[in-house]
Specification:
This protein is mainly beta and 231 residues long. A 14-stranded antiparallel beta sheet has the order 8-7-6-5-4-3-2-1-14-13-12-11-10-9. The protein is globular, with a radius of gyration of 18 Å.
Length: 231
C-alpha cells in the first residue's frame, strides 16, 4: 500500500488510565519518493518526545533518515539520529534517569531492513499470517542493531458509533539474542512486547498502541483522541 498524507491527534495513557500526554502524528510526501512521518508527544509533566522517520517506498519501505528526541522527567534523556546516505549516526543518552549523559557517534552501514520509527507502517501493510523480521537500532548511546519480529497476533471486535468493526492485532517483539549480555544490564529484564491495533479494511485505520517507548520503560497506551470544544 502506497503511503501518503495522514494526520491524527493522540492521547497517551498510563497503565492506570491516567492521561499523561497529548500529541500528534503527521505524515506527508516530501518529493523524490520520500515520505516524512513525525510523532510528537507533549507530557503534562513538561517532558517531550519527538520521533521523525523519513522513508522511501518502492518494492519495499526503506528508512533513509531517523531522529528521536526525548527529554524530561518521564524518561531517560535520548537524542539520536542516523542517516543512510551519510552513513553515520550520533547519539546522546542516559542509561537511566539521573545518570550522566554519554555521547557516541560513528560510521553506519545501514542494513536495508532497518525500520526505526516504522513499525506502524510495516504492521498495517503486513499480509494476513505473514511474519516480518527486521532490525531496530538501539542507542546505548553506541548504536546496536536488535532483531525485531512483526506478526499478526489475532483479531478483536469493537464498536465504532454503535457499528461492529473488526480490529487486527499485531505483535512486535525484540529478540535480543547475542546482544543480551550488552543490553540486558540496561533494561534489567526482557523488554515487554509491543502491540498495534488497526481497524481492518481496504484502508486500515490506526486504533491503538500498547508498549514501552524506551528501554526499561513502563507500558503505555496510545490512542486517537476526540476534539474537545470549549463550553
Amino acid at each position: 500500500m502506497q503511503e501518503g498524507n495522514a494526520r491524527a491527534f493522540l492521547v497517551l495513557r498510563s497503565a492506570n488510565e491516567e492521561e499523561i500526554a497529548f500529541g500528534e502524528l503527521r505524515q506527508r510526501p516530501m518529493g523524490r519518493g520520500l515520505i516524512e512521518s513525525r510523532l510528537t508527544l507533549n507530557f503534562k509533566d513538561g517532558s517531550r518526545r519527538e520521533e521523525l522517520a523519513v522513508f522511501s517506498q518502492g518494492q519495499v519501505f526503506r528508512l533513509e533518515r531517523y531522529r528521536i528526541v526525548q527529554r524530561g522527567p518521564s524518561f531517560p534523556t535520548l537524542e539520536a539520529s542516523l542517516d543512510r546516505m551519510r552513513g553515520s549516526y550520533d547519539a546522546t543518552a542516559q542509561q537511566q534517569q539521573g545518570d550522566p549523559e554519554k555521547h557516541a557517534s560513528g560510521r553506519l552501514e545501514a542494513p536495508t531492513d532497518l525500520y526505526n520509527g516504522l513499525p506502524m507502517i510495516l504492521a498495517k501493510n503486513l499480509s494476513p499470517g505473514a511474519v516480518a523480521t527486521v532490525q531496530t537500532a538501539v542507542f546505548t548511546p553506541k548504536l546496536r542493531l536488535v532483531k525485531t519480529v512483526l506478526s499478526t497476533e489475532g483479531e478483536d471486535q469493537v464498536t465504532i458509533g454503535g457499528e461492529p468493526k473488526k480490529v487486527v492485532r499485531y505483535l512486535v517483539r525484540l529478540e535480543l539474542g547475542g546482544l543480551t549480555g550488552v543490553i540486558a544490564p540496561l533494561i534489567g529484564k526482557e523488554p515487554p512486547d509491543t502491540r498495534y491495533w488497526f481497524v481492518a479494511g481496504d484502508v486500515p485505520a490506526f486504533a491503538k498502541f500498547e508498549g514501552a517507548m524506551f528501554l526499561n520503560g513502563p507500558v503505555w497506551r496510545l490512542e486517537e483522541t476526540s476534539i474537545r470544544w470549549p463550553k
